[in-house]
Amino acid sequence: MKKICTTELLGTRQMKKLKNVRREEVVTFLSKILEIGKKNEVANLSAEILTLANNSSCRMIMSARCSGEDNQAEKCRGLVIESFDLAGKLALFNVIGPLKRIGMWYLRKRIADVTKRYDELFENVLVEHEEKAMREGPNMENKDLMDILLEVYHDKNAEIRITRKQMKNFFLDLFTGGTNTTSDAILWILAELVNHPAAFKKLRDEIDSVVGTERLVDEADIPNLPYFQACVKEAMRLHPAVPLFDRVCRENCRLAGYDIPKGITMIISTYSIMRDPKIWDSPNDFIPERFLTEKYNAKEQNLQVYVPFGGGRRMCPGINMTSSVINCSVTAVVQCFDWKVVGGDGPDGSKVNMAPKSGVVKSLAKPFMAIPLLHRNLFSAKNPV
Ligand code: HEM
Predict the structure, then answer these.
(1) Which residues contact 295 (CB under 8 A, 6 or more apart)?
(2) ipTM for the complex?
(3) Does the C-beta of 296 come closer than 6 Å to ligand 1?
(4) 219 CA to middle of ligand 1, Å?
(5) Would residue 97 be called left, alpha or beta, if left means φ above 0 and alpha means ψ between -120 and 50 degrees?
(6) Using one digit for the tens of pLDDT, what is the confidence trace for 302-321?
(7) Rounded CA separation 103/199 (Å)
(8) Can you state the angle between helices 319-336 and 19-38, rounded to 10 degrees?
């Protein structure tokens, strides 16, 4: 599954094909922000970005057609939010050891309900895709992620054999793994940029010099925007959307002087690794420039110190998808709008409150409310995107 995932479903080729889906979602997002800005109203940026990320991911994973009349994308979003809530509650019970079973019992109705809803949703979409494959035959054009996977499922000679249940579980993984993470990342990148006006200006100057002022930035421009890439990397270093992940030791080993028995679950803290003062100069400061120096690039390649997406064989397969959504949304938002934060905690009330609630908590302490001030209108009827 991982192989199909990285080579086919979420690979660069597939992501290129889905460019229009992302573009549509970004334009919808920008138009909404533009409307809010024109009325000089306050945008709940956290909510808008969550919608953008969820809709793009859902549409890219389950195909654009699904977000039509029966509003599949919206249903998925609701489900993802509910599962995150449940997962959080279950994790809490799990930490307290013996309470794990009580947690499962206490939440059993909600767990059963969510599982049933996911199952129905995926079954409907699978059947839709199967009917389409029957109609259009093997040379069907514009295959989406599910079409590719269904081909493997129905191919008796395929190198990899998968069951229907595995396929549904797989899509569940993609939903839960790929939606809130992307929106968290976008929020943090914007929050850091808004709190660092010099970096914001430098980034806008870079975009202006590469893209000009007549058109909206395009995904194809990203390789020519090194400072933008550095800003993204730096914000994800400081605020990894997945601050902890785990590994089970397959054999007895010794790590940093500690004996680790086989079967033990080790928790890896990406948050601590990426703020380790032994590795990073001024580890808690937002300094995108560090990623433009030879020193850090060499260090990153030699050691596993930059790990927002994990590492090794179980590394996140969604990097391409998430980067493409981040790239087109953040650049456009910087290119087109200035931001005035409402209720921030800076001396002039203009900063985003970035104090974590406690410990390794990743979410912004409160919703990111801001007034979008139109800097440049690049998506009017005269200048269609
Ligand atoms: C900012 C966005 C994202 C971040 C920070 C992130 C981070 C991570 C991390 C840290 C892991 C664990 C890696 C490890 O164990 O070494 C992971 C696993 C995973 N991620 Fe992501 N992820 C993001 C977006 C996505 C997206 C968009 C998708 C798919 C659409 C996705 C799908 C997955 C899957 C399926 C796994 C499990 C891989 C495995 O067990 O082999 N992620 N992600």
Answers:
(1) none
(2) 0.98
(3) no
(4) 22
(5) left
(6) 567 899 999 888 889 888 88
(7) 45
(8) 30
